[in-house]
Amino acid sequence: MSTRGNTRGVVYVHSSPAAVCPHVEWALSGALGRPAQLSWTAQNAAPGQLRAECDWRGPAGTGAAIARALKAWPMLRFEVTEEPSEGVDGERFCYAPGLGLWRGRTSANGDIVVGEDQLRTLVARSRAGEDLAHRIDELLGTAWDEALEPFRHAGDGAPVTWLHQVV
Q1: For 5-15, what is the mean pLDDT?
Q2: What is the 3-state secondary structure (H, E, C) of 104-142?
């Protein structure tokens, strides 16, 4: 495990087939080093699918470990957030079928942070205004936000589970 400071975050499993739910819990358990039991509820945006969310605490980098573990099931829709901690930027991971995994750094208020080297590379490789706009959308994860937004709203008011990583 990392010696970096502890942090916390949230896992949103926006949609999962019922048969995959135990695998999601096993994946979370492996990433956190402790059993994870989620409260699954119906996902109204995808009839027949279930959703769950949980808060977690653990060393910096745990969000990446969770996202890596969950992306093994390409039919899931999920997001993982990790708050910034001492010397470490926050992160957000989004996964949607057909799009794959997107990862972005986040500021203290949750905004996506784009570094100056990323911007310089983007400008150097962009051929026109529309191309630049498309590449900015990619950096910001716009396609993932659009794909996940209906599932986010369908989860309003759902129960949250607290999970803590064994340190």
Answers
A1: 93
A2: EEECCCCCEECCHHHHHHHHHHCCCHHHHHHHHHHHHCH
